[in-house]
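Students often ask why inverse folding is considered easier than folding. One informal answer: many sequences map to the same fold, so there is more than one right answer. In these notes we will look at a single instance of the problem. The structure comes first.
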C-alpha cells in the first residue's frame, strides 16, 4: 500500500509539473484572462499618432480644447483595457469585441477637424491634374453618362449603401458562430484598413468631386437608391476624406478576410465590393485615383491581415 501511495504521489507530482510547465508556456494574456486584443493595439496606435498634431499643430478649430480632452480621455480608457478581463458576462464580452466598431462614426466625424491640423489647404487641384494626365478626362464626372443604365445605377448606389452592412455581415456571423479567433483577425484587418485611410486623410485632405465639382449634373439615371445616397452625403460626409476611398479599402480588406473564413458569404461581399469600387466613381463621390489607391490599400492590408494580427497577438500575449 505504501508503495502504491508513493507511486500515486509521484504521478500527481509529475502531472503537477507538466501542468505548471504548460501554464508557464502559455502567453501571459491567456494565463491571466486580461490584456489587450490586437484590435486594441491598432486603436491605441491610431490615437497616439493623431494625438501628436492635436498637441503640436499651430492651426486650430472651434472646440479644439474640448476635443483634446475627449481624445486623450479615450486614449486613457483604451490603455486601461490592459487590466480589464477578456471574459465575463456575455454583454461585456460583446462590448469588449465590438466597442471600436461602434466608435468608428465618431472617429470618422472627427476627421473634418483633424485634417485641418497639418494643412489648411485641400489637394483636389492636384488630384484633378493627375486624373487629366492619366485619363484625359474626369471619370467621376462622365462615367455615369457613358453607362446611362437605370438598373446599373441603382445597383451601384445600393452597393454604396450596403457598404454599411459589410461589418455586421462578416463580423456578426463570425462572432455568433463562436469563431472568436477568426473574428479577432477580422477586427484587426478591417480596423487597420480604416485607420490607414484616416491617417492619409489627415496627411493629404481631399474634398472629393462631390464637394469640389458639386453633385453630378445631369444626375445619374435611376431612382430611389441614387437619390437616397446623394441626400445622405449632403449631411453625413466629413469634408476632406476622399483620398483614398475608405469605402473601397475596407470593402476589399473585409472581402479578403471573408474569403479565408467564410467562402459562401465572401461571394456576396465580393459582389458588393466590386459595386462599391465602381459606384464610388460612377456616383461622383470619389475620383478614380481615390478608388484605385483604396483598392491597393485594401488588397495590401487584406493580404497582410493574418501576419499583422499574428504579430500583434504575440506582442499582447507574450
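Output (designed amino acids):
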Amino acid at each position: 500500500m505504501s508503495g502504491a501511495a508513493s507511486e500515486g504521489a509521484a504521478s500527481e507530482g509529475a502531472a503537477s509539473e507538466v501542468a505548471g510547465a504548460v501554464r508557464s508556456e502559455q502567453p501571459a494574456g491567456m494565463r491571466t484572462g486580461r490584456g489587450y486584443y490586437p484590435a486594441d493595439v491598432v486603436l491605441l496606435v491610431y490615437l497616439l499618432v493623431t494625438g501628436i498634431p492635436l498637441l503640436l499643430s499651430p492651426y486650430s478649430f472651434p472646440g479644439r480644447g474640448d476635443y483634446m480632452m475627449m481624445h486623450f480621455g479615450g486614449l486613457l480608457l483604451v490603455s486601461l483595457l490592459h487590466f480589464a478581463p477578456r471574459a465575463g458576462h456575455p454583454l461585456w464580452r460583446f462590448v469588449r469585441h465590438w466597442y471600436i466598431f461602434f466608435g468608428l462614426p465618431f472617429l470618422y466625424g472627427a476627421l473634418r477637424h483633424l485634417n485641418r491640423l497639418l494643412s489648411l489647404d485641400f489637394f483636389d487641384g492636384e488630384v484633378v491634374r493627375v486624373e487629366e494626365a492619366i485619363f484625359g478626362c474626369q471619370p467621376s464626372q462622365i462615367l455615369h453618362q457613358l453607362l446611362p443604365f437605370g438598373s446599373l445605377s441603382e445597383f451601384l448606389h445600393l452597393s454604396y449603401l450596403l457598404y454599411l452592412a459589410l461589418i455586421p455581415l462578416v463580423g456578426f456571423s463570425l462572432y455568433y458562430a463562436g469563431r472568436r479567433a477568426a473574428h479577432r483577425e477580422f477586427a484587426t484587418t478591417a480596423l487597420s484598413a480604416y485607420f490607414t485611410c484616416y491617417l492619409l486623410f489627415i496627411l493629404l485632405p481631399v474634398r472629393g468631386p462631390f464637394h469640389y465639382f458639386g453633385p453630378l449634373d445631369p444626375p445619374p439615371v435611376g431612382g430611389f437608391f441614387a437619390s437616397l445616397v446623394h441626400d445622405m452625403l449632403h449631411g453625413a460626409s466629413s469634408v476632406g476624406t476622399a483620398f483614398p476611398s475608405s469605402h473601397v479599402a475596407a470593402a476589399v480588406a473585409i472581402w479578403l478576410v471573408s474569403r479565408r473564413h467564410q467562402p459562401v458569404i465572401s461571394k456576396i461581399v465580393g459582389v458588393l465590393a466590386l459595386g462599391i469600387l465602381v459606384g464610388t466613381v460612377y456616383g461622383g463621390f470619389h475620383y478614380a485615383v481615390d478608388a484605385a489607391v483604396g483598392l491597393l490599400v485594401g488588397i495590401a492590408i487584406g493580404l497582410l491581415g493574418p501576419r499583422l494580427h499574428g504579430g500583434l497577438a504575440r506582442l499582447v500575449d507574450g
